[in-house]
Amino acid sequence: MSVLLVDTGDFVLQLANAFKADRKKLIILCQNMKVTEQLFNKGYSVINASPFAKSSYRQIDFSELSEIIIGAKNIKKAKQILDFLNSRRKASSQLILALKDSVLNPEDEKEIEANKIISIPDLVSKDFFIELGKYNKRRNVEKLFSNIADGDNVLIVSHDNPDPDSIASSMALKYLLKKAKKVNVTIGYGGNVGRSENTNMLELLKIKMFTFDQINLNKINKVAMIETAPDGTTSYRGKIAPCIIIDHHPHRGQYNSAFVDIRPEIGANSTILTEYFIYSRYKMTKQIATALLYAIKTDTMSFNRGITSSDIEAFSYLYNLADLNLLKKIEQPSLSLEEFEAFGKATLKKKVVKGVLFSDIGEVKDREIIPQIADFCLELKGIKIAVVIGTINENLFLSARNKDIKIDAGKLLKKAFEELGSAGGHKLMAAAELKMSKLPKSRKEINSFIIENIIGNL
Hints:
This protein is α/β, with parallel strands linked by helices. The protein is built from 16 helices and 18 strands. Helices cover 38% and strands 22% of the residues.
């Protein structure tokens, strides 16, 4: 979402400076050419045009605006464009009047349609933006709930082969929706719940999840997708399109869902769900707090991968609410025989090329073993990227883990294998799923092909 700053006087530099930390979100309309150049050189997105001409707004997508701020000397100046901007903005967008003198007479107050009228000095203060941020987060939660009605049968779709982050996020969303509305909620997924920690999590926290073939999809009238999207890692093929998408993976396209909250900069999806609790009126249970805490810890590798201040704030909030004894039990499951054997294969069938470790663990039943071993391999001294290869049925799966800040693992796998299947992910972690029919016939040739493609695209 973006903020449109419309300047009708000489206050634009002062107002823009208040947004310097979030300048990428700001679009400025400024008629002063000299000031426009100054702002452009500072990295702001600026349109040099008159704020009073309707044609100046043609290139602005009003559906993407969360706030419209009008900077003006007085209300007389602002009135000239107020009606037009109110007619164009969407209902959820805030319109803020920032005036040199914010004291209005009673008649003006009745006529003015704005969410907030504030003096320019007050607007540029830190406290205003803190409160504005809190307001937007509360509004975001309200928008989430507005897409569900009493009596709905809601299906929460986790990504295939759910991990702790998707499990905890789904559990938390189910709880919130049932608190906010009188609804039936089912959590569904494709694939299987692998890794002993994940099954341990389901058992100890008493989380109920069902595979799609166990669910009567004909009874479902609302769908929410968690940590995935329609073109993401999900085998959901129901007739109902999602009205809610909550994800922290990179945006894959434009979605028509009524509520879309995608934040690639966030380390864990559970951080987003924690925020929903903080800015709603509902208190989470100890079980939910424990699940979300564990999810943030695992998805960020104990704060060693893709961590943000939002993740740290969420973790601190959850730590005081969670059952730490229960958390220890989840974190210390027994190792399955398949996991034990896969770790053995990984140590034997490995090759290191230019700081990249490649390991082929062969045929596996549980897909989650592949990223688990990739995490383990990245800890080896001198390794900057770990790529683990495994086969399930007729598909080849790759899991990559990266600690080289100069490399983006998601872009690397996408560039190397996009034409052979699905590939992508984050800067520090990525995955690919390739059809065996599109690869060389022998295993030795396949491994050589993968090594060449990855090393060649570094």
